[in-house]
Amino acid sequence: MSEKLTLYTNPMSRGRIARWMLEETGVPYEVEILGYGTSMKAPEYLAINPMGKVPAITHGDHVVTECAAICTYLADAFPEAGLAPPLSQRAAYYRWLFFGAGPVEAAVTAHAMGLEAPADKAATAGYGTYENVMDVLEGVLSRNAHVAGAGFSAADVYVGAQIVWGLGFKTIDPRPAFIDYAARMKERPAYQRADALDNAAGAEAEI
Prior knowledge:
By secondary structure, this protein is of the alpha+beta class.
């Protein structure tokens, strides 16, 4: 696919996940850095993402928002990068990608903001409790070097970025399995390139 590929992001946002994923694909892309409350809410960008949030990508005429969707899309759009298992082996890949997008994202956000449901109402939350989500995530990462079990994939970009970020901001428990997994993810050349690019962009841009 040779259409123009553009990332809309802010270096202090979940856009760092999309940047890492793009670096893993190895394909060329352009970057638009958007500011909170300014260009992120401008009509030109709202036409791309009416939520006025980043990241988003455009690929030719296609628009993709939401980090898990961006990771999944890019893995499929550029299969030569080997970031998704064969279709017959994608059960764990989809499971943990969207466990990250659902229970992990919701539980970590609620926990960080002090919004957990009381014990007698936890069953109404899709993720149950923060502790339960952490236990499940710890279980899979204690058993596997990669979250989907069969080599590095886009699921590792999404889940790995959440764990790296969560450990750094102390919103995820510093359990040994998480610390070891984050260290492996941070050793990847694509992660290091993306991190350096976002750090440089953050130093230069009004964010």
